[in-house]
Amino acid sequence: MEFPFDVDALLPERITVLDQHLRPPARRPGTTTSARVDLQQQIMTIVDELGKASAKAQHLSAPITSASRMQSNRHVIYVLKDTSARPAGKGAIIGFLKVGYKKLFVLDDREAHNEVEPLCILDFYIHESVQRHGHGRELFQYMLQKERVEPHQLAIDRPSQKLLKFLNKHYNLETTVPQVNNFVIFEGFFAHQHPPPRKLPPKRAEGDIKPYSSSDREFLKVAVEPPWPLNRAPRRATPPAHPPPRSSSLGNSPERGPLRPFVPEQELLRSLRLCPPHPTARLLLAADPGGSPAQRRRTSSLPRSDESRY
Fold this sequence. Notes:
Oligomer: single chain
Structural class: alpha+beta
Strand content: 5-15%
Number of strands: 9
Radius of gyration: 48 Å
Shape: elongated
């Protein structure tokens, strides 16, 4: 794939790795800011044209690789340059491979869901004029060494039949694990997948008392003794031989023990009249110099003396 600018000068290496910033691989000494912007714009043009060619080869309605998509995602693109062909001294691009890590929910052999974050093959394209010359394997193998992964550890996003045949031919990837999404994984994918350990909540100390604990409930179940003379009334209800079962939920109100019933008013008055006077009251009446209550009533009716005049 040819471009109107010098590809050899822009991409000095045979395989160039570009991240989301799409910056030139190496800064040239004495390059001004405007020149660096022009070089970045040339890289963006290469990415856009490669994405369009890949979408056309896969019969897609829209490209899945573009400069704007690269800048908004943490993906990496490997660009393969043709060093032998130099049309008009500007070089050419053979193809590219785009990869990136994604969080996926995949099924294993037992159809159990697993949350993983593997390296995914997102787009792969070799120009039609140079296919079947080993360029695809060269680019793919370089990526495996750079990312330090094995072929069976990869997840492929909507692979074409050409890509499936390519993986089967060069890496013996044939048996797939059925999935419910657009990604394809092969047998052996879960051989090196180690799920992160689950953090269990800290164990609560046995001595801590929770709200509405059993000790609080036992305290609330103690019956309160009514004051005299209510405690002399006969009980009308016999408490059960066994206390009611304690509630198992924390939200329910605690159960209280049986209390003595209230005494009717007439029975209370009758018990008060029949109650003998307290010994202390008798001593006070005997020590009163005014005498009996009848004597005090007779003396209170007499006229007062003239002591107030003096």
